[in-house]
Specification:
Strands 2-1-3 form a three-stranded mixed beta sheet. The chain is globular and about 65 Å long. The chain has a single domain (4-313), classed as Up-down Bundle (Rhopdopsin 7-helix transmembrane proteins). It has helices spanning 4-8, 24-51, 58-86, 94-127, 132-135, 138-165, 181-186, 193-226, 231-260, 268-292, 295-313; strands at residues 11-14, 91-93, 171-174. It is mainly alpha-helical.
């Protein structure tokens, strides 16, 4: 057994995209722009929802939390990615690496559950409109959001614990830009079987259960909408669901793509690109998807800028 102090002093080298030194600067500029848009977009969405009385309904309550999760998730990953693109020393300590994974796991699981909760919310709104305010009470909404964050923590704590108590030695190379569970476990001197099995079980359960909720909700929504006599009513119903469906398709599509990537040395670039997409790009896309398709959001943003500009002029 290797002494505990050797594990405590162990470090990891995040290779990132160091195999392509000529693209380091362009990637830094690109990811910095994406991160800036992510921060402004998600915090802006939270502000817009808070100040507009029209948005004090469950759909936007969930959307504000989705924006908060996207902001936090991106902030956990992107700053370190940006740093590693411009510095020579790409090392990260064990505690920092596991901490990054802990928050990353917490927020991605929370987002997975939130998207399923939002699908259920749309199901109630379209299929039971007269009972919507009764069913989706403030108490239930708060419980669903609380459960989303709690389940994220429940999944992250044991997985992070197994990584933290594993045995490591010296410098360990991680062929990625982010501290990911399998990559950390693969360089440890401990048997990763239990933690890898737990990861597989939790990931499969989360993906399958949330997709069942989402697909079932939208199956009932589709049937209900197709029975509507008014063409305008059908278009309005589909319009309210379109943004959420787009966000779900991108998020789950990317995760399923990563699951399907073969576990071989030649697939590392595909894994990195897929990881970049769901850790850096998706948090930027969500506020854009919801704002560009929503007239009320665009109108609130326009008024906000108009008021700010008018006040500055005075």
């Amino acid at each position: 057994r290797i002494p505990d102090n050797q594990s405590a002093e162990a470090t990891f080298i995040l290779l990132g995209f160091s195999e392509y030194p000529e693209v380091q600067l362009p990637l830094f500029v690109l990811f910095l722009i994406i991160y800036t848009v992510t921060v402004v977009g998600n915090l802006g969405m939270i502000l817009v929802i808070k100040i507009n009385p029209k948005f004090q309904i469950p759909m936007y309550y969930f959307l504000s939390h989705l924006s908060f999760v996207d902001f936090c998730y991106s902030t956990v990953v992107t700053p370190k990615l940006l740093e590693n693109l411009v510095v020579e020393d790409k090392t990260i300590k064990l505690a920092e690496c596991v901490s990054q994974y802990f928050f990353q796991c917490t927020f991605v699981v929370t987002e997975t559950i939130l998207l399923a909760v939002m699908a259920y919310d749309r199901f109630v709104a379209v299929c039971n409109p007269l009972q919507y305010t009764t069913v989706m009470s403030h108490k239930l909404c708060a419980m669903l959001v609380g459960a989303s964050y709690s389940w994220g923590l429940i999944c992250a704590i044991p997985l992070s614990y197994f990584l933290l108590v594993a045995t490591y030695r010296g410098k360990n190379i991680i062929n990625n830009f982010v501290c990911e569970h399998s990559a950390i476990a693969s360089v440890s001197y401990s048997d990763p079987y239990i933690s890898q099995k737990l990861l597989f079980i939790l990931a499969t359960f989360n993906e399958v259960s949330t997709l069942v909720v989402i697909l079932t909700s939208y199956a009932f929504i589709f049937i209900t909408v197709m029975k509507m006599p008014s063409k305008g009513g059908r278009q309005k119903a589909f319009s309210t669901c379109a943004s959420h469906l787009t966000a779900i398709s991108i998020f789950h599509g990317t995760i399923l793509f990563l699951y399907c990537v073969p576990n071989s040395k030649n697939s590392w670039l595909m894994v990195k690109v897929g990881s970049i997409f769901y850790t850096v790009v998706i948090p930027m896309l969500n506020p854009l998807i919801y704002s560009l398709r929503n007239k009320d959001v665009k109108e609130t943003v326009r008024k906000l800028f108009h008021t700010k500009f008018f006040c500055d002029k005075i």
